[in-house]
Amino acid sequence: IWLEQITRIINFYVTRETMMKTKQKVIAESEDEKLIPIPVYEAIDGSPTFLGRLVTGLLNITSPGKALSYFPSCNAWFDSNGSFVFGSKTIRSLTLAFGVVGINGLDKLISYNIGSSMNLFARTYKHYMDAVCKGYIRNIREEIKAGCISELTETLKTNIDKSIVNLSGLSKTLMPLLDKIGRLQFHRKIIQQQLMQLARVESKGFYQVVSNLNRCSLPYFIERKPEDAKPKTSEEYANLKAQRINEVKFLNVVSSLTDTMGLSNPLQKIYLYPKFEMYSIAHMLAVLTIDYLKGVTYNKGLSMLVRKRVANDCPDPQALLAGIVTVLNHMHVNYLREYMVTLCFYIKLVTAQDLVKKKKQRIEPISSNLYVWLNEYCKMTGQPREIINRISSSFVFDTFPYEV
Q1: 333 with 358: CB under 8 angstroms?
Q2: 3-state helix, strand, coil in the chain (%, to 5)
């Protein structure tokens, strides 16, 4: 009885949090549930429930305005003194406080916040889309689309440098959104790991069943032929529609089970279906990345990129990369490759220009930062490194002739 009631309370608070933020009417409880009413309090700091305030608190303690760095190897945040700030220990303490049900509710609310931030990102980009798709960004897209690898000129580098200046205002608006999306993704990743550990210990049999169901259901959704996808009669159309509805219901059940067992990868989730095509989004994000990487440095001791300055407008490199990957995963798969290709072209242009003018066999800071960035990008997205080697050159991170 206690588990049923705590589950009902958590689900009610998650629903109330999402409904109030979307300005929708809160769904009333049934007559049986009204016999044991759930207490409702006034909103504090914009959140009507403790779960909403908890999400806000997690974002505050990992904000870019503090001297914090996210370490992927530890899956946690640490300050400049090496002290632990947020990670698996925090989520473990929250699990002891309100159980697995509360952690699941927190994960759902974080997922909603990612979708809300993605929606805001899409609306902001749509507002500036005409300005982005025209001018230098359009020239960058057309030049890269032409694929003039053997005849690279300084035109591409000039267009990128001028785009950085023109997109300075847009960068101040989109960078905080990308940073927020990335931090929320890491929060979900930590929660998913905690749920997986608990499931393996407390529900080993059910965990294996869900894992096998997730793995074996993929062959069911095979790619259909174009001629088979088009119904010829009204009866075939009705049957196809009913089949698709059942498939969606089945996928929703599997997705819910995998989230509960901690089997899902937050970076590969779809949180929003854009209602318009985001043309040039990959090239624009590549330009913003180049501008951002000029303000970071490679730390040999930590083997990762770190910020030169701590400010709200300078997000953590790992969080920003996770936000960019989340946005690109919502687009066509080619956009992931176009982002890499744009950065690789820029590396090749900068390296060739430095060798001609300075005549030094040394990798410039911006080039080495881009190599490290692309290395982490390949790990997150699973994109092949052959794309980097084919366009720019082979790279070994341990032998960087890099001067700080």
Answers
A1: no
A2: 65, 5, 30
Q: Identify the burial level of 276 via C-beta atoms within 10 angstroms of its C-beta, where 0-12 means exposed, 13-18 middle and 19 or more buried.
A: exposed
Dist. CA 143–CA 156, nearest whole Å: 7
211 vs 262: CA distance, rounded Å: 10
Q: Which helix (H) or strand (E) holds 338?
A: helix 333-357
Handedness of CA 160, 162, 165, 171 (dihedral sign): negative
Q: What would the pLDDT profile of 130-177 be if each residue is shown by its tens digit? A: 666 666 677 777 777 665 544 555 677 777 777 777 777 778 888 999
Per the prediction, the chain carries an average pLDDT of 80
Residue, of 328 and 18, whose pLDDT is higher: 328
DSSP one-letter string for 222-289: PPPPHHHHS-SSHHHHHHHHHHHHHHHHHHHHHHHHHHHHT---GGG------SS--TTHHHHHHHHH
The size of the chain, in residues, is 404
pLDDT score at 184: 94
Band (399; pLDDT cuts 50, 70, 90): very low
Between vectors from CA 160 to CA 157 and to CA 165, what angle results, nearest 5°? 130
Query: How far is residue 312 from each of residues 80, 171, 176, 243, measured CA to CA in Å?
Result: 16, 13, 8, 49
pTM of the full structure: 0.86
> Which amino acid is it at 332?
H
Amino acid identity at 187: H
